[in-house]
Amino acid sequence: KERLQKKEIKQRISEVLNLVGLSGLEKRYPHQLSGGQQQRVALARALAPQPSLILLDEPLSNLDVQVRLRLRHEIRHILKATGISAIFVTHDQEEALAISDKIAVMSQGNIEQLGTPEEVYTRPASRFVAEFVTQANFIPAKRKGELWTTEIGQWDIPTPSPLQGCHDGDLMVRQEDIFLEPDETGAIVISDRQFLGREYRYCLQMPSGGQLHARTTLSTQIPVGTKVQLAIPAYAPKIFPLDLNSRSA
After folding, report:
1. How far apart (Å, rounded) are the C-alpha atoms in residues 69 and 59?
2. Where do the domains of the chain lie, and which CATH numbers do they carry?
3. Can you say whether residue 27 is alpha, beta or left, with left for phi > 0 and alpha for psi between -120 and 50 degrees?
4. H or E element in which residue 27 lies
5. How large is the angle between the packed helices 6-19 and 65-82, nearest 10 degrees?
6. Secondary structure (3-state) at 94
7. Torsions phi, psi of 195, nearest 5?
8. Residue 21 phi/psi, 5° resolution?
9. How many C-beta atoms lie closer than 10 Å to residue 173's C-beta?
């Protein structure tokens, strides 16, 4: 590109500072800026040359939670407003889901799955993606006829033709898909309950000694030590046959 004149440079600086919400702070030194403001400066510098693509490598990793939540919304808004594409690198699953139009989940340098946030979360293509993105429960399962059987129930889950011979697998159930019903005859016991502000996270002890986790709204408040039955929608579980090259059913 041709070199800009001083007047054009000054105008462009003003434009990007206004875009990232830093108008009026032009004379400040780095040590006079907060962590969030420093990240905005870095974003402004990246946007100033009007690139077609920018790389954001964990830009929010060193910020406190409230600043991160605010900035990830602002970054998405700014990128949409400018029409500039970005590759946003993060290990924070929630951050990736919130800021992206498309997500590529990588493992050992390979792309495990590429799709929209909704596709990756609801239809993980591999056990690795399911564990990394959804933080779901995985329960040992055996196939008996058309059913996959576990210690918490059995489900009729279609299995792709190449995997019809598989009889062992792991049943995936997301934490938010488990509904708890107090029942004195229940074989599952609530061993812990954590208050997370907007929801509760329950730790459930299964008869085998294994553990499950469930997330519920604040309206579901069940004491530790309560025996419960689990209600899981028929559509919720997914099976991952124990095959290195398997894909979810």
Report:
1. 12
2. 6-101 (3.40.50.300), 137-241 (2.40.50.140)
3. alpha
4. none
5. 130
6. helix
7. -90, 120
8. 75, 30
9. 25
Torsion of CA 121, 123, 126, 128, to 10 degrees: 10
Pick from 142, 132, 130, 145: nearest CA to 238: 130
Answer yes or no: are the C-beta atoms of 183 and 174 closer than 8 Å: no
Q: What is the pLDDT of residues 94-149, one digit of tens each?
A: 999 999 999 999 999 999 999 999 999 999 999 999 999 988 999 999 998 889 99
Backbone angles phi, psi at 173, to 5 degrees: -135, 120
Please give the helix or strand (H or E) that residue 223 lies within, else none: none
pTM exceeds 0.85: no
In order of 15, 140, 143, the CA distances from 241 in angstroms are: 54, 10, 9
Please report where in the chains the tokens 């406190």 appear, as a residue. 64
Q: How far apart are CA 150 and CA 142, in angstroms?
A: 7
DSSP string, 106-166: EETTEEEEEE-HHHHHHS-SSHHHIIIII--EEEEEEEETTEEEETTEEE-----GGGTT-
- CB distance 40 to 77 below 8 Å: no
pLDDT of residue 164: 67
Give dist(CA 96, CA 100) in Å, integer: 6
Lookup result for tokens 């095959």? 243
Cα 162 to Cα 200: distance, rounded to the nearest angstrom: 40
